[in-house]
Amino acid sequence: TYAPKLILLDISDINCIQDVAKEILNCYGCVDILINNASMKVKGAVQSISLELDKKIMDANYFGPVTLTKAILPNMISRRTGQIVLINSIQGKIGIPFRAAYAASKHAAVGFFDCLRAEMEEFDISVSTVNPTFICSYHRQPAPGNWEASIWK
Asked: Which of 62, 81, 88, 142 is most buried (CB neighbours < 10 A)?
């Protein structure tokens, strides 16, 4: 048994994910189960959401889990065991109005992890996606003109 270790990670900061993965592997030697369960969303009409915010949502919901998974994956492949889980959203399967950036990022994640599942079969690594329906999550009301405060985390 290992004592728990708290490691802080901003999943939308792609540049720090490799270092965090190395820290985890150095501490424990391996990861048996990786659960990707971080998300950001914003509500708004397509024309009112900036491209900058679209990219931020994509970084957190797609590139973050993909980058972390790719950092841990070589260790799992070398051991020929492991389990990767993506907690996603029903919006990865269907789109609804005023959630275009969120739905797009979740669709992309489903596509990536579906392909990964097929590729990892030969290494006995299980890849699962969980697509729950709508859940209640923390939300801050934005100040006028402050799009960053309109992000749901």
From this structure: 88
H and E: helices and strands count for the chain:
4, 3
Average pLDDT, integer, range 86-103: 87
Q: Which of the following is catalytic: 2, 28, 62, 102?
A: 102
Check if the beta carbon of residue 25 is closer than 8 Å to that of residue 31.
yes
| pLDDT of 33 over the 50 cut | yes
Q: Mean per-residue pLDDT for 24-30?
A: 93
Beta pairing class for 33-36 and 125-130:
unpaired
Q: Is 111 helix (H, G, I), strand (E, B) or coil?
A: helix
> Is 28 assigned a catalytic role?
no
CA-based nearest residue to 116, from 79, 65, 151, 61: 65
